[in-house]
Design a protein that fits this description.
By secondary structure, the chain is of the alpha/beta class. The protein has 6 helices and 10 strands; from the N terminus they run βαβαββαβαβββαβαβ. The strands form 2 sheets. The chain has a 7-stranded parallel β-sheet with strand order 1-10-9-6-2-3-5, with helices on one face. It binds 6-phosphogluconic acid. 6-phosphogluconic acid binds next to loops.
């Protein structure tokens, strides 16, 4: 696993770098495979990146497929909906074919049903179905890019500290029950999928993330969920603003 830590003077500079990296990754994927697959997180941190991307017209949007890293079990028009936020800040501003958008179907009867449907959608899209009800390890979806955030409690996606979902290996997506960490029922990608990605960017900004950043990056054997993001063959890049990186040792220098 290649791991890089990049520190930016502010969230705006960080978003600019992330958008440039998106362009490089998407261009290579389309050149190599004819398509680019990305799974996007919700939250506030990636909003400036999504807005930058929405104004970038020379990307291969017609060959780009957008999935969601995690979702709250609410209607798309609910203010809590990650899909709703990603649609408002990015999707509705770009010429992305409708069939290239792969939201979590929160209209299902239960979060478990939504997770199962999302798993089926990924299996059929990535053609990893091998006939068994549970995808085998060697046929996991491989996203070109997964964009993650970091909670101040060290969560990422909707993988929260101490949650059973941290140990999930049989499914690509699972339902997450409300907890002290999150009041809404959720659906999340699981680590087998996340750690099978070619590229992972973890974005964190703000003083309230500094302690989690320090433990995830510099901690030894951290049990924080974000410390479990270890792409087997892919590249992991932490994109931090100076405030989120403020507790890291001076070995890490801000980007010029
Ligand atoms: C969600 C996100 C979640 C987010 C972190 C950081 O559904 O809330 O997927 O994992 O990335 O909570 O959120 P902020 O960017 O708002 O700090």
């Amino acid at each position: 696993m290649v791991k890089k830590i990049l520190i930016f003077r502010d969230a705006e500079q960080m978003a600019g770098y992330a958008a440039e990296t998106w362009a490089v990754i998407s261009g290579k994927a389309v050149n190599d495979k004819g398509r680019f697959t990305a799974a996007l997180s919700g939250g506030k941190t990636p909003v400036s990146l999504y807005r930058k991307l929405s104004g970038t017209k020379n990307l291969p949007w017609d060959k780009t497929h957008i999935f969601i890293v995690d979702e709250r079990f609410v209607p798309f028009e609910d203010e809590e909906s990650n899909y709703g936020m990603i649609n408002r800040t990015l999707l509705r501003h770009i010429r992305l074919p409708r069939e290239n958008i792969h939201p979590v179907s929160t209209g299902e009867d239960t979060p478990h049903d939504a997770a199962s449907k999302y798993e089926e959608d990924m299996i059929s899209f990535f053609e990893t179905g091998n006939g068994s009800p549970e995808p085998s390890n060697d046929r996991l979806p491989r996203f070109d890019l997964i964009l993650l955030g970091l909670g101040s409690d060290g969560h990422t996606a909707s993988l929260f500290p101490g949650a059973p979902s941290l140990k999930e290996t049989a499914h690509l997506a699972v339902a997450v029950s409300p907890s002290a960490h999150a009041e809404k029922e959720r659906i999340t990608l699981t680590f087998p999928v996340i750690n099978n990605a070619d590229n992972i960017m973890i974005l964190a900004a703000g003083d309230n993330k500094a302690a989690a950043v320090k433990e995830v990056i510099a901690g030894k054997n951290s049990l924080l969920p974000a410390a479990m993001v270890k792409p087997e063959k892919g590249e992991l890049v932490f994109l931090l603003d100076k405030r989120a990186a403020s507790l890291l040792s001076c070995a890490f220098q801000p980007q010029p």
